[in-house]
Amino acid sequence: MGIFGSFSKSKKDSLDQGLAKTKESVFKKLSRAVAGKSKVDDEVLDNLEEVLISSDVGVETTLKIIGRIESRVARDKYLGTEELNSLLKEEIAALLEENNSGDVSEFDLPRRDDPYVIMVVGVNGVGKTTTIGKLAWNFKQAGKKVVLGAADTFRAAAIDQLQIWADRVQVPIVKQKMGADPASVAFDTLNSAKASGADVVIIDTAGRLHNKVNLMNELGKIKKVMQKVIPDAPNEVLLILDGSTGQNAFEQAKQFTLATDVSALALTKLDGTAKGGVVIGISDQFKIPVKYIGIGEKMDDLQVFRRREFVESLFS
Asked: Are 55 and 29 in contact (CB under 8 A)?
């Protein structure tokens, strides 16, 4: 069946619908880029460069893609503009593959004795709590026992919001009062998860970037304390980014990768924007795999990222 064999028609339809705004924008721009041209020449490549940059792919990644297409054009002298779409799909999918984006088949986890610990980071407002709730639901649907940890004790509503999601998904949550030590909450969460035989623990952390040193210290302390319970925790540091913010998402990724060892990305709110190209650029620039994308409000609109299906949807 292969790693992408389980991609159902309903998921494909959801993906197409979720990327509709980006798709429409890209198609209009691509149509203008090749208007009146029968083969891919320098002018078409210049126009294509503009299309990718204006779709929030980012300058460096765009130049890399253009360079790859130039090489193909030089090799296949009479490449027609009608082949540009398939060429773009191939090269962008290859770029994503280099960063291991889209290598996860489903909401699955490695086999292990201890719970798999996911520490979630990201600024307030990017959909962090919602993504945690949807992750918990999807893992539960996959037959996993999930525990949530409310270690964002800085923001008044954060604990309450996570409690609402825990109730909705019907998974246990470990929490303390606002202002409590986040590392203490993480410690309690891992102990509780281990005692109850949980498969996965998802720890929410404070979403503030006003002082990178404080953030770095806090995340470092949380990690250190968690390792007293589970020596290799966290197994994943998942950075949540709002895809609709385009280039601002690049800046957030930069700040968080400086503050902690981010190992995976989730791009949210892609259904409300024409800036879906940001997925390609962020994966390429930070060499961090995109693991999940948010393409709507429903629980199953948080999808495991599949590079081939994403690229196919975007350029078909």
From this structure: yes
Q: What is the pLDDT of residues 104-156, one digit of tens each?
A: 778 888 889 999 999 999 998 899 999 999 999 999 999 999 999 999 998 87
How far apart (Å, rounded) are the C-alpha atoms in residues 45 and 34?
9
The answer to whether 238 touches 260, Cβ cutoff 8 Å, is no
Residues 6+ positions from 79 with CB-CB distance below 8 Å: 39, 40, 72, 73, 87
Residue type, 185: V
> Which helix (DSSP H) or strand (DSSP E) does residue 303 occupy?
strand 302-304
> Largest alpha-carbon pair distance within the chain?
67
Q: Helix 247-259 vs helix 212-226: angle between axes, to the nearest 10 degrees?
A: 60
What residue has token string 């498969």? Answer: 199
pTM of the predicted structure, to 2 decimals: 0.92
* CB distance 291 to 104 below 8 Å: yes
* 207 close to 152: Cβ distance less than 8 angstroms: yes
d(CA 36, CA 52): 20
Instruction: List the 236-242 sheet strands across, edge first.
Output: 173-174, 146-150, 200-204, 116-121, 236-242, 264-268, 290-294, 302-304
